[in-house]
């Protein structure tokens, strides 16, 4: 199993990609999932690239972005091509987007057909670049339940169309994550891992809150301290070296929580070797925003 961290975790932090990468390498992460806006803003730093990350033992498994499926068709094609080129520059094999902006029950049949057709088109564009296009299991999209997600895979009907299995959001949609994973696994190419204190706290992930610098972070928990029981879910993944997953943390104290979760995953998956500690890049771990000493 390969575990990455997400640069979206640092969306409100004054931390460079260099700092994040050095910390990730020192704390046993294998990759860095780049948020689309971060990838675009790194274009003018050509010295920060896939070769540089490889020198640290890291890769970029996926670029995560938001493609406008219901907007202008030509604008969608242009943005998809641009994102594919960015992914190739980072040698990322996957792109993440969302299957529309309304839940499956609230999406009219004609709009659903349009979204499926657009997903098929951008999956074909991604395939031309040697990439996969992943739709994330997520509320307020056509991938909000296991049943609707399976239907969507059949409707898109393209080999480059795959899924990013967000375990918490599958649970949020009312499905048992282990059972849903058994049904969806043939189409899953990546996993997002996060947790929440209770169902009553799920509003913390609402875009208007979670992307706001002043938004509430109350209810966010480390991976193994929340309502979703990850132990049986990890039982399904242990031993598969092809599994790629990202810890998606939206709260404060990023370095401390991510390190704690990474260590907990190692323990759960039977890897008991101690985490390497950075000798030349220590951080203060009791600050909401880690800083160098």
Task: Describe the protein in words.
- Pfam families: AP_endonuc_2.
- The chain is α/β, with parallel strands linked by helices.
- It has one domain (2-274): Divalent-metal-dependent TIM barrel enzymes (TIM Barrel).
- It is built from 11 helices and 10 strands.
- The chain has helices at residues 17-26, 36-41, 50-55, 73-89, 109-128, 146-156, 167-172, 177-184, 207-210, 230-235, 254-268; strands at residues 2-6, 31-35, 62-64, 94-97, 132-136, 161-166, 188-193, 195-196, 220-221, 244-247.
- The strands form 2 sheets. Strands 1-2-3-4-5-6-7-10 form an 8-stranded parallel beta barrel, surrounded by 4 helices. The chain has a two-stranded antiparallel sheet with strand order 8-9.
- Strand 4, helix 5 (109-128) and strand 5 (132-136) form a beta-alpha-beta unit.
- Helix 4 (73-89) runs parallel beside helix 5.
- It is globular.
- The protein starts with a strand and ends in a 25-residue tail after the last helix.
């Amino acid at each position: 199993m390969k575990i990455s961290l997400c640069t979206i975790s640092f969306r409100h932090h004054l931390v460079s990609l260099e700092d994040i990468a050095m910390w990730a390498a020192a704390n046993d992460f294998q990759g860095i999932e780049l948020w689309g806006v971060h990838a675009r803003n790194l274009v003018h730093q050509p010295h920060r690239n896939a070769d540089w990350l490889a020198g640290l033992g890291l890769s970029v498994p996926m670029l995560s972005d938001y493609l406008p499926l219901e907007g202008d068709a030509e604008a969608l094609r242009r943005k998809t091509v641009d994102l594919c080129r960015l992914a190739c520059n980072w040698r990322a094999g996957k792109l993440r987007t969302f299957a529309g902006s309304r839940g499956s029950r609230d999406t009219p049949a004609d709009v659903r057909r349009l979204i499926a057709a657009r997903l098929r088109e951008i999956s074909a564009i991604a395939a031309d670049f040697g990439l996969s296009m992943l739709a994330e299991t997520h509320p307020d999209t056509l991938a909000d339940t296991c049943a609707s997600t399976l239907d969507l895979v059949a409707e898109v009907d393209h080999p480059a169309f795959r899924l990013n299995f967000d375990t918490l959001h599958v649970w949020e949609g009312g499905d048992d994550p282990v059972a849903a994973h058994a049904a969806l696994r043939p189409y899953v190419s990546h996993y997002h891992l996060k947790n929440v204190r209770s169902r009553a706290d799920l509003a913390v992930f609402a875009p208007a809150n979670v992307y706001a610098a002043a938004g509430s972070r109350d209810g966010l928990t480390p991976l193994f301290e929340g309502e979703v029981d990850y132990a049986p879910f990890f039982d399904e993944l242990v031993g598969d070296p092809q599994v790629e997953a990202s810890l998606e943390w939206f709260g404060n104290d990023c370095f401390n929580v991510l390190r704690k979760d990474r260590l907990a995953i190692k323990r759960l998956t039977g890897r008991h070797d101690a985490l390497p500690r950075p000798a030349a890049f220590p951080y203060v771990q009791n600050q909401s925003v880690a800083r160098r000493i």
